[in-house]
Amino acid sequence: MRRQLYEVQRAMRARRETALRRGVIAILDIGTSKVACLVLQFVPEEVGEDGDTRPVLSQGAFRVIGAANTRSRGIAFGEIEAMEECERAVRTAIQGAQKMAGFRVDHVIVSFSGGRPRSYGCTGEVEVEHGAVAERDVGHVLAACDIPDYGHDRDALHALPVNFCLDDRSGLTDPRGQVGRMLAVDMHLVTVASGPLRNILHCIRRCDLELGGIVVSSYASGLASLTEDEQELGSACIDIGAGVTGLSVFLRRQMIYADSVRMGGAHITSDIGHGLQVSLPDAERLKTMHGGLIATGLDDRDMIELPSILGDWEHDRRQISRSELIGVMRPRVEEILEEVRARLDASGFEYLPSQRIVLTGGSAQIPGLESVASRVLGRQCRIGKPHRVQGLPQSATGTAFSTAVGLSMHVSHPQDECWDFETPADRQGARRVTRALRWFKENW
């Protein structure tokens, strides 16, 4: 594993721990259509035998004391294209949440939906040094993983140990303290393009904030939208945002695959604008108020008044039926779902026991999406709203806020990653590409 990247991730985790000790941290969801910010408050409790006081990292150990969101500016496909505009939007969201909370926030954890995430399955094996598996042994086996040569233009964002094997026992989530001779691990590595990621980091620095972590948006959305049974038995979360549709696959409560499609709700809006010759704000209004994906006989008679292009309501009045609007929207939605299906097929999703699919994100609210997705993807689908968290405003409980809520749950109950363990610098592992999800196909 690249040592510089390892140290950067370790530094971010140290800043996160500092913020949690203070009891307040901010969540920042930088999306194509909106920038949302939540301020979380943790209550310190005594833990450990050394008298150390720090917040308990468990779900339900926090409450939302501040929330704000604003329209995104300078962001396309989940990536920054105008730094000044993006900085202004981030500052607006942060200041609004701080004002509501009554606290100044210095540390943030950010979601990232751009960068074209890619998944790799990595394996490693070492001999246990002193009979029982210790923290050092876990660090050694993670350092021994075969890291693929993913290129200098990409950075590793997540390195998640998803399965441990101790001698002949597989399926272990935490082998520490158990007695054995040979310890092996299957690690899920997620990489993203370096340029868009560094732009996000630079924007956070320009806003005078300390970065305590960065998370792939589809990962956070899955944590918020999937039930515990769905995460355990194997399910996919499809986060249909404005510019990007994120995909994450979970099994045994671990994310084992991540990908994205660079299309979303904004492309549906654009199709309406071009097809009906209306402005984008009017197209968004038509999609929100009258849009749908399944036409009935009644929709042929349900007429919609189109806004005038020239502003002359007397001589430029136009009407369309709701069926015509549905006919403009449905092809783009089916195209997005076809791309998602191709990525699910590449992930080995058909080998999972459950194969449930949960749709979330702002564009998941389009009427009829559940039925169309079930037909295109060939599997049972449902619309997934984020889990309830204490203090969350009613306006932030819809599918559009799944990523923000998932980030909150990730902070309160973080999964161990490679960077959380001390790894020897002289054990970097061989550089060869291993097939994603190979551990699952060999062991299940």
Structural class: alpha+beta
> Within the largest sheet, what's the order of strands?
5-2-1-8-13
Rg estimate, integer Å:
23 Å
Which homologous superfamily in CATH is the superfamily of the domain at 3-115 and 195-225 and 389-420? ATPase, nucleotide binding domain
Fraction of residues in helix: 25-40%
- Name of the CATH class of the domain at 3-115 and 195-225 and 389-420: Alpha Beta
Q: Overall mean pLDDT score?
A: 87
Fraction of residues in β-strands:
25-35%
Name the CATH architecture of the domain at 3-115 and 195-225 and 389-420. Answer: 2-Layer Sandwich
Coarse morphology: globular
Helix run count: 13
Largest sheet: 5 strands, mixed
Q: How many individual β-strands?
A: 20
Distance between the termini: 27 Å
CATH fold node name of the domain at 3-115 and 195-225 and 389-420: Nucleotidyltransferase, domain 5
**Low-pLDDT residue spans:** 55-60, 426-444
Structure in words:
With 444 residues, the protein is of the alpha+beta class. The chain has a domain at 3-115 and 195-225 and 389-420: ATPase, nucleotide binding domain (Nucleotidyltransferase, domain 5, 2-Layer Sandwich), CATH 3.30.420.40. It is 35% helix and 28% strand. It contains 13 helices and 20 strands. The chain has helices at 3-22, 83-101, 135-143, 194-206, 217-225, 228-233, 265-276, 280-290, 297-301, 322-347, 369-377, 402-412, 438-443; strands at 24-30, 34-42, 44-46, 53-55, 62-71, 75-76, 79-80, 107-112, 118-127, 154-166, 169-172, 182-193, 210-216, 235-240, 245-251, 254-261, 303-306, 318-321, 356-360, 381-383. Helix 5 (217-225) packs across helix 12, helix 7 (265-276) packs antiparallel against helix 10 (322-347) and helix 10 (322-347) packs across helix 11 (369-377). Keywords: Cell cycle, Cell division, Cell membrane, Membrane. It is a peripheral membrane protein. Residues 48-89 form the Cyclic nucleotide-binding domain.
